[in-house]
């Protein structure tokens, strides 16, 4: 019987990826930073929102825990992107998925939907709220590793 790690398929990630969510304030910039840290060097990674949002400080808190940073990222929309061609668009919210499908109707771009919870709905203490952001961060990192790099999720090992 083969070991699960031996069954992992080596997958070549797309050369350019756009992560999209509603306001480019939490999920998509977090995915962008994580992807840049996990994917091969030379992979072009960007993020955008359907509408403009405001930077969320909890994103910096949970990225910093991994030694990562969003740098001077400011939320922006699709219209503000420097490049508008991607091999893959990963949408993280229903609103973004609908916008991406509309945008790519006549293009040969893979659009995939990774349902990702909105951590801003978390209530309670600061620690409970940060925990919600950590869960989103870890969810996105696992999806990037599994779906873009072909690594077996830890729960399956």
TrEMBL record:
Instruction: Read off the PANTHER family from this record.
Output: ARSENATE REDUCTASE
Organism expressing this protein natively? Pararhizobium capsulatum DSM 1112
Gene3D superfamilies reported in the protein's UniProt record: 3.40.50.2300
List, alphabetically, the InterPro entries matched: Ptyr_pPase (IPR023485), Ptyr_pPase_sf (IPR036196)
Outline the extent of the Phosphotyrosine protein phosphatase I domain: 15-151
Query: Which protein is depicted?
Result: Protein-tyrosine-phosphatase
Entry keyword set: Arsenical resistance
